[in-house]
Amino acid sequence: MALVALRNVTKTYPSPERNAEAIVAVDDVTLDIEAGDVYGIIGYSGAGKSTLVRLVNALEPATSGSIIVDGTEITAIPERQLRGIRLRIGMIFQQFNLFNSKTVWKNVAYPLTVAGRPKAEIAARVDELLEFVGLTDKARSYPDQLSGGQKQRVGIARALATSPQLLLADEATSALDPETTQEVLALLKRVNREFGITMIVITHEMDVIQSIATKVAVMDGGRVVENGDVFEVFSNPQNPSSQRFVSTVVKGIPSPAELAVLRERHEGRIVTISFRDGDASQAAVFVELAAAGLEFELVFGGINDIQGRAFGHLTLAIRGSDAAIDAALAQIAARVDVTEVA
Amino acid sequence: MDRLFELGSEFWVATVETLYMVSFTLLIGGLAGLALGLALYTTRAGSLLENRAVFNTLNVVINFFRPIPFIIFIAAVQPLSRFVIGTGIGNNALIFALSLAASFAIGRIVEQNLLTVSPGVIEAAKAMGAGPFRILRTVVIPEALGPLILGYTFVMVAIVDMTAVAGVIGGGGLGNFALVYGYRQFEPVVTWAAVLLIVVFVQGVQFFGNWLARKVLRR
């Protein structure tokens, strides 16, 4: 059984204007998040990502559908009981949302106090967490004395305080510069590996998904339009919305403008060959083309690595007789994806 | 100047009366206002204990009483004062009227200051499983403490101002002293002595309030 199971979940808000239709933030979403997953949820702002993740810890009640977290149907239980469930779900935020009136130490201790843990246990746990995020020397500092990356590390320590099974990250790196982003992502990766904590990571940055997620769901207009293994979605996106996102990080597919330039500069037929881990090697393709006596050059392309699996797109300009090219492409197409682009 | 020395003991009594009225009003009105402000804050749409009926009622009540000029308000609540504290005149009756008026003003100020607390911080506390009362006590009030202190300082200065009309219901204090012994007896030195003492008092309060707020905000 999945750790988090969403079944036909819908969330609507009443329209701010009278008699207008309700706003549908999340539209009939069905999704399973297995224990140990780092599940990325990507989409443009307004796609419903933030609402979706707030349904999981019931900060927002679902309008309809079923949400089961660790075996408990949370759409049907009273607020008081939900608080107990929230103790088992950590959450980190884009704006960190630290308590500015409390020291770093007290920020991290807060959820433990809420959980009613004994003082000695709280002290030991807070010290341990600050050690884990590398902020032991900042224990007595206040949040406004920290850098953005340090604030998010406090946020992570605070979210982990009660040893949750699930961590929700709402655009956790979007307010950080690229270098700090990598630092925080590395920390999240450690959290997943060392503690086996399942994560739902919301982002509009595809490279966040690329670097930490194992699974991904693409949201558009409140719906999950595509989901699955990150490698599958990245190497072979089906939905136009996913394709747009993937093209922002996966280099190698020429845009229409780039294609026009390629067309002008190179003679012959322009063909994009897509390789995926497990497909025939590039060498086999090139051998095939050479054996057919065709002249070809590499005009555009890129190879990507996702979780140790490679895929890429190479665009070739191929010259020779049409019949010979067709024959060679037919041979190659049996092994890899071939698209004649121009 | 000689007249001021003759009035030494009255001046002293008036000073103590002002301090008495101000401190009790601040205590009673301050607590009532805090409760009112918290109620307004928590029941407003989208807040911790959203309750449209309670919010609207409080809102209307406050908006009804706030614009009444204090000198008229004193007269208007006199019957209520007799009923609640047994007298409609004197310093205690003034404290009653003033606490009531101040609690409406303080309620608004508390509400406004609490609204400066970032909703994200409250959401974070909720996500950690904290209930509404715990969030109010351990997050909302501490986060807004600096502005709250400045708000109360502002109110305290206004209360000093309002105690000056205590004379209309037979109360005392420095305002009454300045009017009775200074203004009506053509003794500007006496009037100004009271004025200066009030100024010094207000400055002291403001200075202390600023210092405390800075300390809380660590700036």
From TrEMBL, chain A:
Domain ABC transporter: 4-246
GO cellular component, one term: plasma membrane
One family name in Pfam for this protein: ABC_tran
CDD domains on file: ABC_MetN_methionine_transporter
Function: Part of the ABC transporter FtsEX involved in cellular division. Has ATPase activity.
Protein family membership: Belongs to the ABC transporter superfamily.
Protein name: Methionine ABC transporter ATP-binding protein
TrEMBL record, chain B:
Entry-linked Pfam families: BPD_transp_1 (PF00528)
Keyword ATP-binding: no
Transmembrane segments: 20-41, 53-77, 83-106, 144-169, 189-213
ABC transmembrane type-1 domain residues: 15-207
InterPro entries: AA_ABC_Transporter_Permease, MetI-like, MetI-like_sf
Keyword flag Membrane: yes
Family: Belongs to the binding-protein-dependent transport system permease family.
Protein name in the entry: ABC transporter permease
Keywords: Cell membrane, Membrane, Transmembrane, Transmembrane helix, Transport
GO cellular component: plasma membrane
Organism: Agromyces albus
Example GO biological process: D-methionine transmembrane transport
Membrane topology category: Multi-pass membrane protein
PROSITE patterns: ABC_TM1 (PS50928)
SUPFAM superfamilies: MetI-like
Stored PANTHER family: ABC TRANSPORTER PERMEASE (PTHR30450), TRANSPORTER, PERMEASE PROTEIN, PUTATIVE-RELATED (PTHR30450:SF14)
Subcellular localization, as worded in the UniProt entry: Cell membrane
